[in-house]
Design goal:
7-stranded mixed beta sheet, alpha/beta, 2 domains
Length: about 300
């Protein structure tokens, strides 16, 4: 099975603490790196995770609160100092480019690579990026400012060749790709060998859904349904539900309810309020509703 992993670089919320960094994640899918959000300190966390700066091609920013984007300018500058030449693609609401262009002009003049912004509108529900490995869909979240979640849907892979059958029928190498893509094989004497005899099915494509920041909204199930891994913010515990509603955030129990409604295979919670020095209270509350829940931790890599 191809690599599909989520590296947590930061899982805290707006107020900095000595225990957690501001929000950022990196998805490693088939050895391509995609970043979601870029809070302050992200580039240091990126180094600690041992990730390759050169393999980072796309950054997705969920909204323009500082704990999700204040690290972006520093990261862009560092990539220039490292001699990057490949274009960096940033996917965000149009206001981000408006804010950052003057900074790029002032601080990064003569930088050896281009920064290309791909803007999408508030409330977008479209696929905003697609390549051979993944499609990325945005969807609206319910926060104090325009905010979106992201769904990373793995592209299907080709079927697996049964080497012993290829050898048995003495199939030429030139035919292998056609067989991987579903074609039968016709022998020189006209006998048809069905594809099902020559291959085994590819693994089912996986799905990662990301929801931060947002208050509980059951309508988002249409986007997060059947996620293999769902990341959902869990800023507060139940005893702070009024505060969660006021600030348009979620409780751990609400995150778990979203996972249950989504029929997710696994839930990962994060974006912890600075008031918690022990997040086990959040984990315990979530597990009461959705037992297969994990706490996000900096430096940990989670498999999708």
């Amino acid at each position: 099975m191809e690599k599909f992993e989520v590296h947590i670089l930061g899982c805290g919320s707006a107020l900095p603490t000595t225990r957690h960094n501001a929000t950022s994640q990196v998805i490693d899918l088939r050895d391509k790196l995609y970043m979601i959000d870029c809070g302050e300190g992200t580039q240091s966390q990126y180094r600690r995770a041992g990730l390759s700066f050169s393999r980072l091609g796309h950054i997705f920013i969920s909204h323009l609160h500082g704990d999700h984007c204040f690290g972006l300018m520093g990261l862009i500058s560092t990539l220039g100092l490292l001699g990057r030449t490949a274009t960096l693609h940033i996917h965000a609401f149009p206001e981000l480019e408006t804010l950052m262009r003057p900074w790029l002009t002032y601080f990064c003049e003569g930088m050896p690579y281009e920064v290309e912004f791909h803007s999408f509108p508030h409330g977008c529900t479209d696929v905003i990026h697609e390549d051979r490995s993944v499609s990325v869909q945005a969807f609206p979240l319910s926060h104090r400012v325009p905010c979106c979640g992201f769904v990373f849907q793995e592209k299907p892979t080709a079927a697996h060749i049964r080497r012993e059958m290829i050898d048995f029928y003495e199939i030429p190498i030139s035919q292998i790709n056609r067989i991987k893509n579903g074609e039968d094989y016709v022998t020189p004497d006209g006998k048809v060998i069905p594809n099902s005899r020559l291959t085994t099915p590819a693994a089912t494509p996986r799905k990662y859904a990301y929801c931060s920041d947002t208050k509980f909204n059951a309508n988002n199930v249409q986007y997060t349904h059947d996620a293999d891994l769902l990341f959902h913010e869990a800023t507060f515990a139940d005893d702070r539900s009024a505060r969660a509603e006021q600030t348009c955030h979620s409780t751990a129990r609400q995150a778990a309810e979203m996972a249950r409604l989504s029929h997710a295979k696994q839930l990962l919670i994060g974006h912890y309020s600075a008031r918690y020095t022990d997040e086990s209270v959040l984990l315990n509350e979530a597990c009461e509703t959705f037992p297969n829940t994990l706490l996000a931790e900096e430096g940990i890599c989670y498999k999708v």
